[in-house]
Amino acid sequence: MTDTPTIHDIYAARPHVYRYLRPTPLHHYATLSDLVGTQIYIKHENHQPVGAFKVRGGLVMAAGLTTEQRKAGLFTASTGNHGQSIAYAARANAIKATIAVPEGANPGKVAAMRGLGAEVILHGEDFDSAREWITGVAAEKGGTFVGPTDEPLIHGVGTYTLEILDDLPDVEVILVPVGAGSGASATSIVAKSIHPGIKVIGVQSAQAPAMHLSWQSGNLMTAQMETFAEGIATRVPFENTQRIMRKYLDDFLLVDDADIEDAIRILLEHTHNLAEGAGAAPLAAALQIKDRLAGKKVVLVMSGGNLSVERLKGILSR
Amino acid sequence: MTDTPTIHDIYAARPHVYRYLRPTPLHHYATLSDLVGTQIYIKHENHQPVGAFKVRGGLVMAAGLTTEQRKAGLFTASTGNHGQSIAYAARANAIKATIAVPEGANPGKVAAMRGLGAEVILHGEDFDSAREWITGVAAEKGGTFVGPTDEPLIHGVGTYTLEILDDLPDVEVILVPVGAGSGASATSIVAKSIHPGIKVIGVQSAQAPAMHLSWQSGNLMTAQMETFAEGIATRVPFENTQRIMRKYLDDFLLVDDADIEDAIRILLEHTHNLAEGAGAAPLAAALQIKDRLAGKKVVLVMSGGNLSVERLKGILSR
């Protein structure tokens, strides 16, 4: 494994992560294990301060900035967890963060980013136009634009898989949601470096299969993006995470949004944790491949918990 | 402070707790702070393995048993978090746990206790008859009956308040739910020992005010018990925790069940955490005394998250 990033990069990221965060729990759930017919452990990244794993990456990225870059500030586009991660890291390091979100974005998430001290600017009718615009603003002001799969972010988010190995060294399968691919890439780098026999399986919504189609075909392919689960809603695939996942990922499954919604309800019942769509997708996939998982120690990465109450209400009332 | 327990007992409990558990997070929530009009921090005891703070106490109690006592096993009565705590501690120490629950108890909680390896026996039509019966069984078999306010449990649960002080040494107010009183007693012992200026406020449901009435009157008084929040549903008060709370608690508030339900919804929206009734009661109280809390650093103890999906569905659909 001579390409970058390597597990060594992820080890190097740890001090930056643990300056602000503690390891998240890996809990075993007996009744959920019975339901899936194997031993189920949940990696609770939903317990992070901003409710998602991405906060690890932002901290590592911010730690690597020069004094000049700190002064010029951070710029990104996001409607979700990536923006909160950048806002959190910026505040922790006394850096100004400017985040573009498309008009009509979830007001709760906008409020959360503002609550973390970021300047949030509504611009454009969709994510891509917000992103294009803020990239220009960053260039003009000499600031740093942070893309969702920038290498320091991969280094940072990889630390949760080291924690999984700390707590459960004999883990056999890890199911991880794939959005832009930073989490799945980092998970597979760590798992395969420590023990190639650990199976790492990516999961995406069948209603937004761009990363899956690209992984399967070997070419970067865009696709429809109609999932409610914004954490795994990727329309345009990312080259660097595709390269890593093609090398290390053992399998890549698609699950229907309806099954993700069921998984949210099941997780609430058996773990009393609120998962967002991305965070519940690994359980939906595990239920799809029960036969393959039987008798194994399986970790589901609950990547985040930022589900709106309105969405939850809809899921519970069905 | 020469009575027992003391903060030294709680320090002595730490190694037993951290042999199995990690500190839980204390998170600041910006939008929730805006809502209450002060700085709100949540102590996330709902992130514990069994979903509640009580797990700390069970581990300390189990660590103090003699070899003889370990062989004879642990016996208790519970329909909720206390039972799961004893089951968890017993499993961790390879001790047999026998838990009596009244007939008609929540099947989810029974399954959770069984999932932790406990023998669960349904007996009697209410909690008191289950408890009376299992006390007799324990005596007959030479086993140890564990009551909900036994001293080692207070020592163990006190460790979460040391963690609060670790993370936020300038905390000014702590709001803590009161069921049997072990959590509130331990919180006030720790807080007052470290800085008498920290205000500790207990919270109970107005629909189950026995502990509140006893604290206020100075006499042990039973009362109605009609709250849905089983974590703070106490009909018969406990002498030892009353004695501690009368000495150290600054105030003791009652909140209506309807306000607790509102608080559950608000916490879900602003923190994406599921709180059970007891875990949401401190927010309900904070909203009741906004004026007194203005400008202060306030910690709400989210004691547990074991709310049923059915109950949540009812709360969200109102």
Tell me the distance between the termini of chain A: 48 Å
Q: What would you report as the Rg of chain A, rounded to the nearest angstrom?
A: 18 Å
Low-confidence stretches of chain A: none
Quaternary structure annotation: homodimer
Task: Throw out a few tags for this protein.
homodimer, 318 residues, alpha/beta, Rossmann fold, six-stranded mixed β-sheet, 10 strands
Secondary-structure blueprint:
The structure is a homodimer of 318-residue chains.
Chain A: H1 7-18, E1 26-28, H2 30-36, E2 39-44, H3 55-63, H4 67-72, E3 74-77, H5 81-92, E4 97-101, H6 107-115, E5 119-122, H7 127-141, E6 144-145, H8 151-157, H9 159-167, E7 173-177, H10 182-194, E8 199-205, H11 210-217, H12 239-248, E9 251-255, H13 257-271, H14 277-288, H15 290-293, E10 297-302, H16 309-317
Helix pairs in contact in A: 1-3, 1-8, 3-5, 3-8, 5-6, 8-10, 9-10, 10-12, 11-12, 13-14
Overall description:
- The structure is a homodimer of 318-residue chains.
- Chain A is of the alpha/beta class and 318 residues long.
- Chain A has two domains: 7-53 and 152-317, Rossmann fold (3-Layer(aba) Sandwich); 55-148, Rossmann fold.
- In chain A, 49% of the residues lie in helices and 15% in strands.
- The first copy, chain A, has helices at residues 7-18, 30-36, 55-63, 67-72, 81-92, 107-115, 127-141, 151-157, 159-167, 182-194, 210-217, 239-248, 257-271, 277-288, 290-293, 309-317; strands at residues 26-28, 39-44, 74-77, 97-101, 119-122, 144-145, 173-177, 199-205, 251-255, 297-302.
- In chain A, the strands form two sheets. In chain A, strands 1-2-10-7-8-9 form a six-stranded mixed β-sheet, sandwiched between helices. Chain A has a four-stranded parallel β-sheet with strand order 5-4-3-6, sandwiched between helices.
- The N and C termini of chain A lie far apart (48 Å).
- The A-B interface holds A 22-23, 25, 27-31, 33-34, 44, 46-47, 49, 51, 108, 111-112, 114-116, 265, 268-269, 272-274, 276, 305-309, 312-313, 316-317 and B 22-23, 25, 27-31, 33-34, 44, 46-47, 49, 51, 108, 111-112, 114-116, 265, 268-269, 272-274, 276, 305-309, 312-313, 316-317.
